Amino acid sequence: MNPSAMRPFPISVVAMGPGSQGEEAPDYLPLPSMDTFSAPRLPENAAPEVVAEAATLLGAWLDAAEVAGFAGGATLNLVGLGAPLRDVITQSLGFGEVSAFTSAPEHWRVQETAFTGLWRVLKLADDGAFVVDRLETGSIPAVLVDTMENTASADQPAPAYPEGTMNAPALIEELRQQAAAWKPGAAAHVINLTLLPVSEADLDTLYSWLGHREVSILSRGYGNCRITSTRLKNVWWVQYFNSMDTLILNSIEVVGMPEVALAADEDFADSIERLREYLDMMVESD
What we know:
alpha+beta; Ribosomal Protein S8, Chain: A, domain 1; 2 domains; elongated
């Protein structure tokens, strides 16, 4: 493995832990390293009528989700609900492996629930107040893809190449061509920098040219995968870290959204079934 590819992660990932999003936000909790399902737990001392109302709302949302299908999507607006009811809904859905945020032009926060394909989506005003709080279904919330498309450029002129560059010119031309040619539904074009002979100057040039932009995603499983949009449309940094936070794979992907961040159709069907079972348990324990 080329030592020069094992650089410190150059893209900042804003903390999404408890307390980082204000009092109204659901807690974005650290997750186990193993990809296993852990049933959520209701808040202690939750009023039976609040639990019943939460089960009714979530059940209606699941009904709409099954009718719409995985690709169709279904939403449940949580703005205006009382704090006890929102708390029960938050705890009932739990927290999944994927979290994300956008830094501009709008501030969105996204958290996968414990049920893959079911998402919590929030939008923050400049004063930190939540103006959007909803549940969504689908492979990933559209606000993340939309932000990338609205803030990245269709083309990025080639930079000046400093002394010491070897493969940066070829890589940059490859990225420019692949980004221009990529169409929705096409397979990802992946450049694995970890396996390529790249110099410090090559990496510095790529980092400076692509930059890190307004969409940041963290997918937790066996270690962490950190995904960040770039200045070039449909081009993403995708970097994998092991449980010791050591960079083990440094890559660039040309795609609408890297697959590692996406929920799959079969996972969605399983999530619907498991959440219905959980709602039945909520009603029975009421």
